[in-house]
Amino acid sequence: MTVRTVVFVTGTAAILLAVPAGYRLDGRVMAVAGAVAGIAALVPRTAWVDVVEYSAVAVWVGATVVEQVPVEVPALFGIAVMLYLHHTFAAMAAALPVNAEVVPQVLTNWAWRAGAVLVVSGVAGIGVLLLPRLVQPVSSPIAPLVALAAASLIGVTLAFQLRRRG
Amino acid sequence: MFLAAITGRLDLLVLALPFVVGTAWSLRRRPTVEPEVTLGVSESLVPEGEQVRVIVTVGNPTDTAFDFVVTGLRRSPWLRMQRGIRPYAIPLPAGSEGDIELDGRTLRWGRHALGPARAYAVACDGLLESHRVTTPPLWLRVHPVNEDFQAGEGMPRAAGLAGTHHSRRPGEGGELAGVRPFAPGDRLRRIDWRVSLRTRELHVSATLSDRDAEVVILLDVLHEVGASGGVGGAASALDTAVRAAAGIAEHYLHRGDRVSLIEFGPKFRQLRPASGRRQYHAVLEWLLDITVSAGQVDATTWLQRPYLLPSNALVVALTPLVDDRSAELLAGLARAGRFLVAVDTLPANARPAAVNEWSDVAFRLWRLERENMLGQLREHGVPVVAWTGSGSLDQVLRDVARMAGSARAVVR
After folding, report:
1. Which residues of chain B make contact with A124, given a CB cutoff of 8 A?
2. Closest to B126 (Cβ–Cβ): which among A92, A117, A124?
3. What three-state secondary structure class fits B150?
């Protein structure tokens, strides 16, 4: 139950952080966010976990593009942290039976690992955000293609790693 | 990440970074084989009501840690575990083993399945999950608690060559039968010098031989009556029969008699007569496999089996007497001149669930019919007593022993 509670809380928090600040305390927004995150916490082995995470990203993109909400770094990092915690604890909840008795060390090990990933990602994220200030922006039509190729390469490599045997 | 690459938005890349870093970190090393799981128990042979410790050992034979291993254990409902009903998750570093110790208590006699135990491992931050590994179940043998039983009365007819019962035949023994004149073959130490001096003729003390006896414990397994609550709880008819059988067998085996057991049911299970401690263990082992067998069995055919019951044996029949075939069997044994004691194992509070307003009346009618049947059995010379533990058979054994000394009329 502890793990599922974490999944619910982090999922709700990720969506609410993505919503523009003026709507976060709106009862209907909170209810929708809580409902979607609640379903994901109840059935963590289903696509509802993805629904929560994609919803948070979609809301964030919508807020920044449609509503022209400026990107605030604390909110951005907050969403990133909540999304990853939601993802990793949903993975744990999916592997554990609902009534399982879990040794506390399992939870602490998991939390430490997630924390380490977040610290490394945080440092890398700061580097990414500082990149435009350090490097002269290049306005080339092939730049998006290079970035897309790099992203694809990373994606394919991780997918291969996941599916390989041995 | 793709969206970030296409749109050039760095904020989206920041959102994707933990997922990329986390996945890459998780998959740097991955286990290649499934976890190992073994099931053990502190003792495979325990009495009813005793504590037993179950040990589920899970091992990680790989050089990569499992995030956790989830184990689950199925068990018989007659094993009450303090913990372990729920699945259990423990972390398992590379090349290590973990023991999950589960303490429990055996609630009822019999062979109880412990397991199978199942386990699966989760690794790489939940990205990988192994197949379920299953162990074969263990069988725990739970001996019945002996119902306390003592019988002060002698056997109706002792038959063997050695034992503790005073027989009615002259021979080597401790019980004085009388004094008679010396005859060739008499041992000198048997000479009664006091009588010999008084009568001026050699006399010897005659004794009755000490013999052992054979006890046949007959268990009626045609029906189970009442719900078993395990040790310390309500006893079903089969519970009472099994525990009483264990108590009676222990009592007579302790006295040096030969004891055999036999089922009245379609399976014709039988334990050959023997004496001693080994036979007692054989009795307990034999009792573990007692189950209700409501198949086709006919009392007349059953009685016609050869070498079924020795003529001199004391037959103790443990039966709930809810089937006409059981009554026919007892009547048949009595007619054949067996030394028979019937022990009524029907629980005092046993009654069917009320399904309508006629249930109570129907039950009372059935009780009356049963009382009638018990009366008829007594008229046939079958003593029927309710099982009350120690000394419960004394009165009937006394009667049976007295009847054994008198002339018998046997229907042929």
Report:
1. 17, 21
2. A92
3. coil
Whether the pTM exceeds 0.80: the reply is: no
Query: How close is the nearest chain A Cα to the Cα of B48, in Å?
Result: 28
Contact B14 A154 (CB under 8 A): no
Residue of B nearest to A105 (CA): B91
Instruction: Determine how many CB atoms are found less than 10 A away from the CB of residue B379.
Output: 10
H-type helices in B27-70, by residue range? none
Q: Over chain B (412 residues), what is each successive 10-residue block's mean pLDDT?
A: 67 85 83 88 87 90 89 87 80 88 89 89 87 90 79 55 54 71 85 91 79 82 86 87 89 85 88 89 93 81 74 87 89 86 86 80 89 89 80 69 54 46
Sign of CA dihedral A152, A156, A157, A159: positive
Burial class for A138, CB neighbours closer than 10 Å (0-12, 13-18, 19+)? exposed
Establish whether this prediction's ipTM goes over 0.95.
Answer: no
Q: Report chain B residues whose CB lies below 8 A from the CB of A148.
A: 2, 5-6
Which residues are CB-contacts of A120 (< 8 A; sequence separation ≥ 6)?
Answer: B21, B25
